[in-house]
Design a protein that fits this description.
Elements (H helix, E strand, L loop, with lengths): L6 E6 L2 E6 L2 E3 H8 L11 E6 L8 E3 L4 E3 L5 E6 L4
Parallel strand pairs: 1-7
Antiparallel strand pairs: 1-2, 3-6, 4-5, 4-7
Length: 83
């Protein structure tokens, strides 16, 4: 039998979400907060994180980027103005 996939709990704008251990992309984080995100590519979001891994415990997740998740990691997603 395959081993069950390990999951961690991440927090996105105050809401806990279970996520498979590994990486999460910008689009996946935004979609957890804004479920119809992919239907509105004209809207951009700022994604910041804290409580990450030791070498980069806090930062900004840019569109197209990804970050390794860990238990209790906190993400903040906010809509940015159109540039």
């Amino acid at each position: 039998m395959p081993e069950p996939e390990k999951q961690v709990t991440i927090i996105v704008n105050g809401t806990p979400h279970k996520w498979p251990k590994g990486e999460i992309t910008y689009a996946e984080v935004v979609t957890l907060e804004v479920p119809d995100y992919l239907s509105h590519p004209e809207i951009t979001y700022s994604v910041k994180y804290t409580n990450g891994h030791g070498n980069k415990p806090a930062g900004i997740l840019a569109p197209g980027g990804s970050v390794r998740v860990k238990e209790g990691m906190v993400f903040s997603v906010s809509e940015t103005g159109q540039s």
